[in-house]
Specification:
heterodimer; A: mainly beta; OB fold (Dihydrolipoamide Acetyltransferase, E2P); 5-stranded mixed barrel; about 5% helix; globular; B: alpha+beta; 9-stranded mixed beta barrel; about 10% helix
């Protein structure tokens, strides 16, 4: 059954120039035309190389709970930008804006992760040739 | 045998106790924090008088060696590629590489979606490691330039004043020797196994590639870097790319295990191959 996604039409924000997919191209895995916004609860954070993963349970439009996994930046770069794995805790409510994987799984590439008070965590990603990736050129 | 590297390492350990930590995690000190205030000062020199490139260097991520970007410039002698319609406003054209027919065929058939060897954490190789966004720690003495790439925790050594052996076993990173041209270290690398790509975009090269790199340090805080790709199998003439590296006295190199949680690959979201005989890999021989 296809999950209906809330499509975010607003422009995506990219804060810091955090390289996301340094070792392989964005386009090989993710669909630049399949923007999505997930609102849900953090169930796990993998703070490991080559990329962090944030696991979120989010309801689709029909109200069904879907288990998502969203790829973030590399932990070393995030550490240098002041983040730690404790920036998100299990149970935190987040909004993830990103792009869906081409293979149709509940996998996304997160371009932003936002807490309910508007604070962004693991901010930004750049230089993976993905859409709005380059904050620096 | 006198080993300046071990002396430098002991000095570094001593400085750890007095360094300043910044944005690196708790309790990690900067090795060169006491020099941080004078990044425009002269470059340090080894006891033998040659420039010392040692330090932790931030480099521009270079996914496309034909493109303009921050701290990176493609070969100005090459013609521009026509701009694609619908591209980003204000985007600069990339440079058109001088492909041989075999090189053009290798480039045209490459699609990272069919498998990028780095996706399975195979060694990036020399040029893609230099292109990587993660820091590079250089440790140098009179005999060796040691390149410690944070990307996948790979290292590569350059024998300063050395020569290539006659029967090299081809490798991912090649065999590098260096010689001084004034204050510029010129590094010559051959012996590639042909299983790598020049950059993330996948520009091809053959096992016959010859890479020439030039390192100079105009001031304490910067390295000027130039790389020339000389590969008559793939390109009709040599072409180059230049960069500026920036010293980061506030950073420490960190471990980077590509393999420890490579979900993209082991869950099958991406294809990856290190097999040069895989037709989908599209390697030039």
């Amino acid at each position: 059954m296809k999950t209906k996604l809330v499509v975010c039409m607003a422009g995506l924000l990219v804060a810091a120039a955090v390289p996301l997919l340094a070792h392989h191209s964005f386009a090989a895995e993710y669909d630049a035309n399949a923007k999505l916004t997930l609102k849900g609860t953090v169930t796990k954070v993998d703070w490991m190389n080559p990329h962090i993963w944030v696991y979120v349970d989010a309801k689709d439009e029909a109200g069904k709970m879907i288990h998502w996994q969203c790829e973030g930046g590399p932990p070393n770069t995030l550490t240098r930008n002041g983040w730690t794995k404790d920036a998100l805790k299990i149970g935190d409510e987040v909004t993830i804006e990103g792009f869906r994987a081409k293979d149709g799984t509940n996998t996304c590439n997160s371009r932003s992760v936002t807490l309910p008070d508007g604070r962004r965590v693991f901010a930004g990603s750049a230089d993976d040739n993905g859409p709005k990736a380059r904050g620096e050129n | 045998m006198k080993n300046n590297l071990s002396v430098a390492a002991m000095a570094a350990v001593a400085m750890l106790a007095t360094g300043v930590s910044f944005g690196q995690g708790p309790g990690v000190a900067g090795l060169e924090s006491k020099a941080a205030k004078d990044l425009k000062g002269p470059a340090p020199r080894l006891p033998d008088g040659h420039p010392d490139f040692s330090g932790l260097w931030e480099r521009p991520y270079t996914p496309d060696m034909t493109a303009y970007g921050r701290n990176q410039t493609p070969d100005q002698s090459l013609p521009d590629e026509p701009l694609k319609p619908g591209g980003r406003a204000g985007a600069r054209p990339t440079k058109a590489l001088p492909f041989t027919p075999a090189g053009k065929a290798a480039w045209d058939k490459y699609d990272a979606a069919n498998g990028d060897y780095t996706g399975s954490c195979m060694p990036f190789g020399l040029t893609r490691s230099v292109n990587s966004p993660d820091p590079l720690q250089i440790m140098q003495n009179s005999q060796y330039l040691g390149l410690l790439f944070e990307q996948n925790t790979w290292f590569h050594t350059v024998r300063i004043g050395g020569e290539h052996a006659k029967n090299l076993t081809p490798t991912w990173f090649g065999d590098s020797v260096g010689k001084w041209d004034g204050d510029t270290l010129v590094i010559d690398t051959i012996g590639f196994n042909g299983r790598t790509r020049l950059d993330t975009n996948g520009h091809p090269h053959s096992a016959q590639m010859h890479v020439i790199e030039r390192y100079s340090r105009p001031d304490y805080g910067h390295i000027n870097y130039e790389i020339t790709i000389d590969d008559p199998v793939t390109y009709t003439k040599p072409w180059k790319n230049t960069r500026v590296f920036t010293l980061r006295p506030d950073w420490q190199i960190m471990e980077y295990s590509c393999e420890e949680n490579n979900k993209d690959f082991f869950e099958g979201h991406i294809k990856a191959t290190g097999d040069p005989n895989d037709p989908k890999a599209g390697f030039t021989k």
